[in-house]
Structure to design on (314 residues):
């Protein structure tokens, strides 16, 4: 079943997005922005504040001992000032190619703006996640409604707590707390948006990337927690399902270290790769761009990708 979503961008970076003669299933490359580097720097802080404000009640309802609770770790000043904590990297998507608000907000205007149509169904996401070893890659709708968040949050915490405890058995409690905190920071926090952005109908490709310092989770950290590297790898596999079936500690260290800094603005990003089968079309509002885009598509062995003219936006 198709899952069609749209990414607003500009013509001048099309050639950098579309790769030629590259590694199989890595023909499309986005620069996923580190979440705390967004233009709206308050967005990440808002998610942290919301988690902190609700997490304590949920942890108490689960009967989690005080020494195992993690709510206080989500104090925004602590997270944002600690360079060793992990940060999510994000590519933003939405549900329509003809949204006037999105054209004005996320392109350089109708003369040079464009929209990529992507099919991110389960099969293609599995290729991007497993085959490309982007094993912390997820696709989530943003959450804008706080009552909905309350319900989702409580169910998720209960599920994680009981399922993880059942799978891991008698593992060290700190081991569970570590991965629970990581999951919330990397995958849940970047879903939360303020209600006044609801009209964006945003879905996000999220790459959870622990900071470089977290590589030592497989060395010093494992000793502190009283578990072996193998136990940590097995814990990660159970935590993330089939996306880490053939993963070892070297794969994780490579994944963690492969981040970059934009030379133009010093913002951090990570390359996010998708298979070429994910690209289904390109939309423009300037008819003069159509032939230029088709020329690039031919040069990238993507000549069958249609280019559409958006005649009206709403």
């Amino acid at each position: 079943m198709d899952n069609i979503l749209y990414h607003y961008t500009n013509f001048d970076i099309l050639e950098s997005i579309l790769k030629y003669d590259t590694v199989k299933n890595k023909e499309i490359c986005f620069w996923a922005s580190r979440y705390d580097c967004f233009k709206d720097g308050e967005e990440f802080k808002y998610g942290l504040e919301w988690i902190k404000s609700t997490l304590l009640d949920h942890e108490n309802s689960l009967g989690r001992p005080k020494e195992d609770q993690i709510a206080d770790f989500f104090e925004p000043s602590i997270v944002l000032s600690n360079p060793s904590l992990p940060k999510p990297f994000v590519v933003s998507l939405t549900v329509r190619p003809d949204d006037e608000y999105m054209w004005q907000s996320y392109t350089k205007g109708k003369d040079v703006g464009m929209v990529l149509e992507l099919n991110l169904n389960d099969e293609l996401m599995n290729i991007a996640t497993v085959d490309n070893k982007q094993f912390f890659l997820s696709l989530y709708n943003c959450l804008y409604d706080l009552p909905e968040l309350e319900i989702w949050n409580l169910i998720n915490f209960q599920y994680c707590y009981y399922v993880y405890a059942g799978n891991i058995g008698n593992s060290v409690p700190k081991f569970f707390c570590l991965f629970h905190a990581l999951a919330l920071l990397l995958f849940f926090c970047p879903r939360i948006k303020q209600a006044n952005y609801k009209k964006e109908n945003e879905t996000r490709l999220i790459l959870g990337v622990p900071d470089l310092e977290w590589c030592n989770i497989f060395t010093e950290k494992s000793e502190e927690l009283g578990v072996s590297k193998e136990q940590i790898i097995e814990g990660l596999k159970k935590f993330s399902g089939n996306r880490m079936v053939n993963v070892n500690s070297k794969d994780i260290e490579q994944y963690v270290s492969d981040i970059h800094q934009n030379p133009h603005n010093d913002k951090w990003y990570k390359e996010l790769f998708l298979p070429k089968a994910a690209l289904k079309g390109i939309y423009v509002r300037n008819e003069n761009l159509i032939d230029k885009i088709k020329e690039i598509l031919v040069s990238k062995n993507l000549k069958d990708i249609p280019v559409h003219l958006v005649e009206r936006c709403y």
Q: What stands out?
A: The mean pLDDT is 81.
